[in-house]
């Protein structure tokens, strides 16, 4: 009789332990799920394109564009980036010279391909809040795979700030380097894209893991 009672007690304890582990697993799954959140671009973001010419350097800036991503964040650390997509209307790039803008839009084939875009293929989180993003960059209708390095900070208001730059050659996107004033002014083939991206957490929670 005592053996039966002991055996029953042991079974009950095993059942309770199994239930506890199941509940713990469900809780951990819920925490992981909640950490995957949609983010979108917010105020304070900027894209700057810097170039050179035989006479002077030039730059164009845009503060209006779209960017969406799914980030896994915990304790102000980015653990993973599930997706990231960026789109910039070419006409949103502005310099201090309207004539330069018109020429730049023509060079970038804006009438036919009116957006510059980037889609993330892979993200690697590195020490010291560094991020290596590999993805498809499309300019002038030509898409190339690029690697972009940036730093990130998860701010106290739960926004994420990404900062970095990427040097590219316009010829890689089959863009002909323009010249003006009968060739007296020639722009360089190399340009640098600098970015400050501030992302705001959205209310919706992503349920995939």
What does this entry look like structurally?
- This protein has helices spanning 2-35, 98-107, and strands at residues 36-41, 46-51, 58-62, 66-74, 77-89, 115-126, 130-139, 142-154, 160-169, 179-180, 185-186, 190-205.
- It is an alpha+beta fold and 209 residues long.
- The two termini are 49 Å apart.
- The model is unreliable at 24-34 (pLDDT under 50).
- The chain has two helices and twelve strands.
- The strands form two sheets. The chain has an eight-stranded antiparallel beta barrel with strand order 1-4-5-6-7-8-9-12. It has a two-stranded antiparallel ribbon with strand order 10-11.
Overall strand count: 12
Q: Please list the strands of the largest sheet in the order they lie side by side.
A: 1-4-5-6-7-8-9-12
Which residues sit in consecutive blocks of at least 5 with pLDDT less than 50?
24-34
Q: Radius of gyration in whole Å, from Cα?
A: 25 Å
Largest sheet: 8 strands, antiparallel, barrel
Q: Give, in order, the helices and strands.
A: HEEEEEHEEEEEEE
């Amino acid at each position: 009789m005592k053996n039966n009672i002991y055996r029953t007690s042991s079974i009950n304890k095993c059942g309770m332990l199994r239930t506890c582990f199941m509940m713990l697993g469900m809780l951990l799954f819920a925490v992981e799920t909640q950490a995957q959140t949609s983010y979108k671009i917010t105020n304070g973001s900027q894209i700057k394109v810097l170039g050179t010419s035989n006479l002077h350097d030039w730059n164009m800036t845009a503060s209006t564009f779209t960017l969406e991503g799914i980030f896994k964040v915990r304790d102000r650390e980015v653990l993973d980036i599930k997706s990231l997509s960026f789109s910039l209307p070419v006409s949103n790039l502005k310099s201090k010279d309207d004539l330069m803008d018109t020429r730049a839009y023509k060079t970038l084939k804006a009438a036919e391909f009116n957006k510059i875009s980037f889609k993330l293929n892979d993200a690697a989180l590195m020490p010291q809040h560094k991020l290596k993003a590999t993805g498809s960059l499309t300019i002038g209708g030509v898409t190339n795979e690029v690697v972009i390095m940036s730093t990130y900070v998860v701010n106290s208001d739960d926004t994420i700030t990404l900062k970095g730059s990427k040097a590219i050659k316009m010829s890689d996107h089959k863009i002909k380097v323009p010249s003006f004033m009968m060739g007296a002014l020639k722009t360089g083939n190399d340009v640098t894209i600098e970015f400050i991206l501030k992302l705001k957490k959205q209310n919706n929670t992503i349920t995939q893991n």
